[in-house]
Fold:
Amino acid sequence: MSMRINAKSILLGAVSVVALMSAAHAADVVAPEQPASGFNWSGIYIGVGLGAGANVHKLSSDFIPISLNGIGGEGVYGEATVGYDYLVSPRFLVGGLLDAHIGNIETKLDVAGLSASVKETYGFDAGLRVGYLFTPSTLGYVLGGYAWQKYKLDSNAGFGMDWDQSGYFVGAGLETAINSNWTIKTEYRYTRFGTKDDLLSQFNVPNGALNLDTSRHTFQIAANYRFGAQEGGPAAFEGPTYNWTGFYVGGGLGAGAAVHKVEVPPLGGLSFNGLGSEGGFGELNAGYDQDFGSWVAGVKVDARYSGIDSKLDLFGTDVKLKGDYGFDVLARVGMKVNETTLAYVLGGYSWQHFKFDAPAPLDASWSSSGFSVGGGLETAVTNNVTVGVEYRYSQFSKKDFSDVYPIPSGLVTDTPSFHTVRLEAKYKFN
Structure:
């Protein structure tokens, strides 16, 4: 496993740990019952966040019947937010927000001494959100709006260019109060940008000769400071009484993207990171948690069936690379930021099956083992049911395709990584 991937895994784990420790510190210095008593969700807030994710670029042409979905990139980003929320009833909220972000989600190509990359540099989102208070201190919400992003192509051959794309985003998240003014949130966004058909116009190439359609899957952990929240809001309604100790079963729906790092050493040391896939999945899980007071620790096993794939349409013939099903065995540890909400990190073993749908004899399937790290927020909505938003970064081992096809060892290898987010519901047995 390369140092680049190790560094990324450590960074993503560190982001989760920093957010968790911040929540733990806030919970320690303020009485835990304070957020649940008259917390005022209406008003202006500002916030900062750290996130990770991946994008997928679809390339097509109006003149040739070829399309590839897609070219993938991955990385991390930082974000600043300003927003306003208004409680229209004791449990329903509407609001607006404006975000600005800067990051390094990028695709890289190295071959025969040539290095090139396409990177997301900076951008902003402007949108609306609608939320529902599961408890007086925890908000579940959906959001959507306008997105704008700047891209940059760099190379060591003296060639480069930049452009921008605009589109829309949709998403969902959980936000919970940790003291009289501060909240933390976990949030997923899917962003879809409009077709860029004039990318090569500066080279006198007709519009439509190369079309670029980009989508992005991101997850962030953020902290918001809410002005006036300590002044008290509507009378707090009664929240559930939840015991975190016990066995549970659950399920979820998720989405995300994968990036395959393909290496072909005989072709000038070709390294391409990467080939992109995206899609949704369904997941079932079971586990056990033990409550240690302020902390909760547990284990879980899950199984999923996925539609995350890449697609090449070549003169009417479809070729797909799928990550179709898999499972995870994970451990997690979390801090109760209030009596009904848990902020946690997790990690463990992951297994994934892949399938290459192509005309014979190129069709094939294989599996790969690896690890996952991540984190999220989970909140009780009844005495037995919780809902949550969770992110995972999964890294799988390098696959030598001499195990799949009759080719020399080391000729072609693939190292996949996944960025996935799931919205979960769990039922805990008493």
